[in-house]
Design a protein that fits this description.
By secondary structure, this protein is an alpha+beta fold. The protein has 27 helices and 28 strands. It is globular.
Length: 898
């Protein structure tokens, strides 16, 4: 069976075939019966062949019932290999009919089926990108063979059924069964077709184009058990704001008729841009209290998918090499719309600290790739939905807009849409449209420098000072110092350190003015050399802090000079503008990750900022970096004290937090996350025999939280999410047993409740618990995608990691089997989630990883890529830990650079 479609195969098939229309009948009549694992899928496809030669159609199914080509039967035993039906078309028009027995999915790939524990109702939805439409119906599953699709769905008559196009007719052919016939879609790719069916609750409204008044029907759907939490008013508001923004930006009406958005369970992604029927993870339906940061994140996802209606759906990349043509553009345009069309006007702050951090990390792996990537097959495509394709691409587009001007960028985009509407395109097509709109700029040279190279430019200022002269200058530093010599340098990271890129960025100076750090001066600089002088800065009084890339218009990793680093560590919270704080924290985080900044210095700065940081996006990003530093980079011998110190600071800040505020909720989560790290693996708390005051107070906080009585923290809403965080932390420490977990699960009979219970069970610090979790993960093929992740989260709970040492060897022994017997999504979750990052013998794990890679040079490229990235993370941890003892002063160049 061949499931990994290659680029060469796709190109050959595209050269041979032109597809007109699919008519697909999906019989889901028995979907509510969990014993029924299969469903009937009948597809008739009309296409033209340029010549008569062997080819194939994609279909992964339990079997083929019958197949025919131009009315002549095909023998399934001869033509079907489990993933492809091979046939020889005639030159000219052809009709192929395939009747398959397809499989319901529990992996989030294909037609996923979920039974809601809250009410036992069934919910189905499809998810296809990059090539899982073939798990539901026979098709030529590649992006450039676009066609029209007509879906007919038979399902129990009490279920809501939707597809990309509007419903043309509904009938009841049998008692209890409804037949839903949908209109033909516009021309689109197979991977963005979609069908849902289930006990979905629905809200509806109508949007009208701000200029023409043309209506667009808006729908919002989610599981009936989540209907009361749907938040339709806010979601519809963001949707309308987005449509207004994109209509004005692209000067092209939304091209897909209706606009339904459905929030579905056990979803592998954040969302998917199926035109007319956008799917989202229903974790974005908030049944518990969340911070503004989470609502901002949801708005961003809504706008990202909406941008795809033009970038990706209307004009689609020809092959996955140009995946960036949709993902980078959607990421950038969503950020722009978020900041300019919604209440989240500071959306670029979160982008600067969190989204770009994803790009910086991805761009320093040995597997880094250009934004325009080399994607030889669909397994490689699956792994290329990464920080480079999304966040680096968006960052570089933000820079491109600065380079050519916003008006030219939008004009080029409009030309691109008009030229390739309902078709496919490549990088050269977009650059051609942009060059017409911006003849004053060499966009092809820009593309060579930024889209075709790898790595991130490290930007630093080399600063020398002198005493101020007699011309009356004064300085902030000792003796009235001024900048006497200053150079800006760029160095690209491995594996292409020789790459020099053109940069346009601003440098800002900050001085202490009373209790704040105030921006006193800025300079704008264009440079495209390894280093150069910045004469316009000479004679400036020495500022407290110099910040390259002010405004975050460039994609670069900023290295602060020694004085600026010291100021940042002591006073970052004194910067009034949250974007400035985000950029400074980003620089400190990169220095920490590269072994140039001691973990204890970063943690001290974090603890000082805990009670002062008011931006929820920054607070969330800092918590992630802080926890990673404790888990991966802190010296193990000093980790218990470091955890206790951070825990004490978090508790103090929680006590002082404004009741009912985002800060209070965020700090409560931080306390519980740190509490779960206060044991050494056998249930013994960290600190002085479990008597550290912070550990005792945090345990009391978690225990009291579960009683529902927290008089000390008025305004803190004790909901299911907070209770589960507390219980999982206590379970991981051995302070909650099976009965307490079962009691909480009984009180929360929902999908998320079942997942939290599985995490709590697997987190308990007992060898037999870890063994059972391992056996379930590696042996039970019926576990759903989300249940696998939930059990992994408990199995790898930080406090009990020493108990997982016996599974280091079996992990490497099972890699081949996992990859060959599981779907790529499930295999990826297992390979990444079970990698022994937390082993007490990291050098041994590194050696085992190298040995496996050496023994398996012919292993699938996607599997090798995962192992290479996991190895790089572990090697970095080892280097950074070792660097702690060698880093003797702030800003030193010693350490684990790169």
């Amino acid at each position: 069976m061949t499931t990994n479609l290659t680029r060469d195969e796709a190109r050959h098939r595209s050269d041979l075939l032109t597809v007109s229309r699919y008519a697909t009948i999906l019989d889901l009549s028995s979907c509510a019966d969990p014993e029924q694992r299969e469903f009937d899928s009948v597809t008739t496809v009309e296409f033209t062949a340029a010549r008569s030669e062997p080819t194939f159609i994609d279909i992964i199914a339990a079997g083929i019932v019958e197949a025919s080509l131009n009315g002549a039967p095909l023998d399934p035993a001869e033509v079907f290999d489990g993933a492809r039906v091979r046939f020889v078309p005639r030159a000219g028009e052809n009709t192929l009919r395939i009747h398959a027995r397809a499989l319901y999915s529990r992996t989030g790939e294909g037609l996923h089926r979920f039974f809601d524990p809250a009410d036992d109702s069934v919910h189905l939805y499809t998810q296809y990108e990059p090539t899982d439409a073939r798990r539901v119906f026979a098709n030529f599953d590649q992006p450039d063979l676009k066609a029209r699709f007509a879906f007919t769905v038979l399902a129990p008559d009490d279920l809501v059924v939707r597809s990309n196009a509007v419903l043309a007719e509904r009938s009841t052919p049998d008692a209890g069964i409804a037949c839903h016939e949908f209109a033909d879609t516009e021309v689109l790719s197979s991977y963005i077709t979609c069908v849902i069916a289930g006990n979905y609750a629905e809200a509806r409204t109508t949007y009208r184009h701000p200029v023409t008044g043309e209506p667009i029907e808006l729908g919002l759907l989610t599981r009936a058990s989540l209907a009361e939490h749907m938040d339709a008013e806010e979601i519809f508001r963001v949707t309308a704001q987005g449509l207004d923004f994109f209509h004005a930006a692209f000067d092209l009406p939304y091209p897909w008729g209706k606009y339904d958005q459905v929030f579905v369970p056990e979803y592998n992604l954040g969302a998917m841009e199926n035109p007319g029927l956008v799917t989202f993870t229903d974790s974005l339906i908030f049944r518990d209290k969340v911070t503004r940061s989470m609502r901002e994140s949801r708005a961003n996802v809504i706008l990202h998918e909406m941008a795809h209606m033009w970038f990706g759906d209307l004009v689609t990349m020809r092959w996955w090499d140009d995946l960036w043509l949709k993902e980078s553009f959607a990421d950038y345009m969503a950020g722009l719309a978020l900041a300019e069309a919604t209440e989240y006007t500071d959306g670029w702050v979160t982008f600067a600290l969190r989204r770009k951090d994803w790009a910086y990390r991805q761009d320093q792996y040995p597997t880094t790739h250009p934004i325009v990537a080399d994607i030889p097959d669909v397994e490689a495509a699956k792994l290329n939905f990464d920080g480079i394709t999304y966040a680096k691409g968006a960052s570089v587009l933000k820079q491109l807009v600065t380079f050519v001007g916003r008006a030219a960028f939008l004009d080029g985009s409009r030309r691109y849409f008009r030229a390739h509407a309902f078709g496919t395109a490549t990088l050269q097509d977009f650059l051609g449209a942009l060059a017409e709109a911006a003849p004053h700029r060499d966009v092809h040279h820009w593309a060579d420098a930024w889209l075709g190279t790898v790595g991130v430019s490290e930007i630093e200022l080399a600063v020398e000072t002198a005493e101020a002269g007699t011309g009356g200058e004064t300085g902030d530093g000792p003796g009235g110092e001024v900048l006497s010599d200053i150079r800006i340098r760029q160095r690209n990271t491995e594996p292409e350190p020789e790459v020099v890129r053109p940069h346009r960025l601003a440098i800002a100076a900050f001085d202490r003015v009373g209790p704040v750090l105030e921006r006193s001066k800025t300079w704008t600089l264009d440079f495209a050399v390894p280093d150069c002088d910045v004469p316009e800065m000479l004679g400036t009084p020495l500022p407290a802090l110099l910040l390259p890339n002010d405004g975050d218009l460039d994609y670069c990793k900023v290295r602060l000079d020694a004085r600026s680093t010291a100021t940042a560590l002591s006073s970052v919270s004194r910067l009034a503008d949250p974007l400035h704080r985000a950029l400074v924290w980003s620089a400190l985080g990169n220095a920490l990750r590269d072994g140039l900044l001691p973990v204890e210095d970063y943690l001290a700065a974090y603890c000082r900022a805990l009670s002062k940081e008011t931006h929820p996006g920054i607070a969330a990003g800092l918590r992630t970096t802080m926890l990673t530093a404790l888990d991966r980079w802190a010296d193990p011998s000093g980790r218990p004290a470091a955890v206790a110190g951070a825990l004490g600071a978090a508790l103090d800040s929680l006590v002082a937090a404004e009741p009912g505020s985002d800060a209070q909720l965020d700090l409560a989560s931080t306390v519980l996350s740190l509490l779960a790290r206060t044991a050494g693996g056998t249930g013994e708390p960290a600190g002085a025999s479990g008597t550290d005051p912070a550990v005792v107070a945090a345990r009391e906080f978690a225990s009291t939280l579960l009683t529902g009585r927290l008089e000390e923290f008025p305004g803190l809403e004790i909901d299911h999410a907070l209770r589960w965080k507390a219980l999982i932390a206590l379970a991981a420490l051995g302070w909650a047993d099976v009965a307490e977990i079962a009691q909480e699960a009984a009180a929360d009979r929902t999908g998320s409740g079942a997942l939290h219970a599985a995490t709590a069970q697997a987190a308990r610090p007992l060898p037999i618990v870890k063994m059972r979790a391992w056996e379930s993960l590696t042996g039970d093929a019926e576990l759903s995608n989300d249940m696998i992740s939930a059990v992994i989260a408990g199995f790898t709970a930080p406090s009990a990691l020493p108990l997982t040492e016996p599974f280091v060897g079996p992990y490497f022994e099972l890699l081949d089997t996992v990859w060959s017997t599981r779907s790529i999504e499930i295999a990826r979750r297992l390979v990444v989630g079970l990698y022994p990052h937390g082993s007490q013998r990291p050098a041994d794990v590194l050696e085992r990883t190298d040995a496996w890679l050496m023994r398996n040079p012919e292993a699938p490229g996607a599997l090798r890529r995962l192992l290479l990235e996991l190895r790089d993370d572990l090697a970095r941890s080892i280097r950074v830990r070792a660097a702690q003892s060698r880093t003797t002063s702030l800003g030193t160049s010693q350490g684990a650079h790169g």
